[in-house]
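Feature request, filed as a ticket because there's no other form

It would be nice if the structure record came with a short human-readable summary line next to the tokens. Right now we just get the raw output. Example of a typical job, pasted below so the devs can see what we mean:
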Amino acid sequence: MARTLGIQVSLASVVLLTVSCSSPSREYAVPTDLCGVQVPVSALEPVLPAGDGVSLHPSAVGGNKRCRLHVDGESVLSTSIEPWEKDASAQDVARVALEVEPGDTQSEDRRFLYSKKGAVGRVICPGGNAAERSLWATVRVTHDDATEVEMKTLITAFADAVAASGECGQVVG
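Raw output as currently delivered:
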């Protein structure tokens, strides 16, 4: 009986060791900067998957600035900063944004609209937005690990970071 118990304990130890060694982990440092926009790690970290390496890929098309974050060579997060008409709503922006729909959850102040995979948010520029334009931030993840709460936290932090970054004058001005 003692021998059987010893074998069972040994097998259980091997299984636990195998499971703990094979569980995915984040081996990279979470960036504090998304292509020039300082974003708090506490807002970004929860929506990023496990992996070994991270890289950022900025691009610009017209007045839109985009940033793609890759983990192990695969795009896992995409952000954009986009000028819109002054009276654009979160639903207007969501109609063309990926992974968020006009009927998704909206913040009480109607500034943010978000789902488990995407979000849009109005950027409140210092001194107010230019009279003819509004500025919007979007975020999107390509995996199913994020929650609505995490996406709301991320879009709120990202939109506020865009406002503090100087983008208001460059994009809207």
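Something like this underneath would help us a lot:
Residues 86 and 132 are 5 Å apart (CA to CA).
The chain has one domain: 28-172.
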